Amino acid sequence: MNVKPKKALGQHFLNDLGIAKRIADTISESELPEQARSWGSLPIVEVGPGMGVLTQYLMQTGREVKAIELDSESVEYLHKVYPSLEVEEADFLKLDLDTLFPGEFALIGNYPYNISSQIFFKLLDYKEKIPVCAGMLQREVAQRLCSPPGSKVYGILSVLLQAWYDCEYLFTVDEGVFTPPPKVKSGVIRLTRNSRVSLGCDEKKFKTVVKTAFGQRRKTLRNSLASLLPAEGEILTSPLLKERPERLSVEQFIELAKALG
Questions:
Q1: Which domain holds residue 209?
Q2: Which backbone phi and psi does 92 adopt, to 5 degrees?
Q3: In terms of domains, do 37 and 130 share one?
Q4: Of 16, 32, 99, 219, which sees the most CB atoms within 10 A?
Q5: Last residue of a domain, which of 193, 215, 239?
Q6: What pLDDT, on a 0 to 100 scale, did the predictor assign at position 5?
Q7: How high is the pLDDT of residue 225?
Q8: Same domain (yes/no): 242, 128
Q9: For residues 196 and 166, what is the distance between their CA atoms, to the nearest angstrom?
Q10: Confidence of residue 6 (pLDDT cuts 50, 70, 90)
């Protein structure tokens, strides 16, 4: 039995076992950064397992694995090939992740290109349950999530994720190792929770400031944040307002959110 890749679901099945093993290893205890080694024993949630090329290596770790798959044909295949695997037929973006495990878990997957950004926005909603996340997505998106201030691809998700996670771009994957081959290269990344426990400001305000700033990224912050600025106050003299959003660090965005709070 083979599963037909479905364009509507953004399915591109990885067929290189060596790369699948490398991706699985990104959340192993031996490969995690030293400060994150304890998360190498957490249960695992895999998003979009497809035909299970990554799943088989996750199961070999001895850790509990749950797979979330929307495609019913893939679900049927996984039940037959991996009968001991717990598979939940569901849309990951609509799933209440609190129901998967009572405590923390690691998140991994070969994420569908068409919903990868939404997956990472959802990750932020469950950052207290997911201290480590890894996987493969479109290279340009992967680079954006891990890019530093000053980069032309630094954006909303770069800031929001890096406020809570250390983001690493690990390696690039070529188009030819997929069925069907995508038109772009892929990138594998890993996110591990940093030591921050609080922003020191209202999180909703922080998100609003970041999203509003990058909504007009070619303008200075004085112009792009005009709708949020008061008529008077010390914030109006801040030198940060002279900058464009891609120049600001996470800490500087937090500083702005505090001033506007």
A1: 203-260
A2: -55, -35
A3: yes
A4: 32
A5: 193
A6: 87
A7: 97
A8: no
A9: 11
A10: confident
Q: Are residues 25 and 85 in the same domain?
A: yes
Amino acid occupying residue 33: P
Mean pLDDT of the region 76-93? 96
CATH code, 83: 3.40.50.150
Question: Is 227 found in the same domain as 98?
Answer: no
Residue 224 pLDDT level (bands cut at 50, 70, 90): very high
How far is it between the farthest Cα atoms of the chain? 68
Q: Which residues pair with 138 in a beta bridge?
A: 186
The tens digit of pLDDT for each residue in 96-123 reads 999 999 999 999 999 998 899 999 999 9
Domain count, the chain: 2
- Cβ contacts of residue 70 below 8 Å, gap of 6+? 9, 48, 89, 90, 91, 92
11 belongs to a structural domain: yes
For Cα atoms 250, 190, 202, give the angle at the middle one, nearest 5 degrees.
30
Across the chain, what does the average pLDDT equal? 95
3 state SS for the chain: CCCCCCHHHCCCEECCHHHHHHHHHCCCCCCCCHHHHHHHHCCEEEECCCCCCCHHHHHCCCCCEEEEECCHHHHHHHHHHCCCCEEEECCHHHCCHHHCCCCCCEEEEECCHHHHHHHHHHHHHCCCCCCEEEEEEEHHHHHHHHCCCCCCCCCHHHHHHHCCEEEEEEEEECHHHEECCCCCCEEEEEEEECCCCCCCCCHHHHHHHHHHHHHCCCCCHHHHCCCCCCCCCHHHHCHHHHCCHHHCCHHHHHHHHHHHC
Q: Are residues 97 and 158 in the same domain?
A: yes
The rounded distance, in Å, linking the Cα atoms of 19 and 188 is 10
Phi/psi of residue 166, nearest 5 degrees: -85, 120
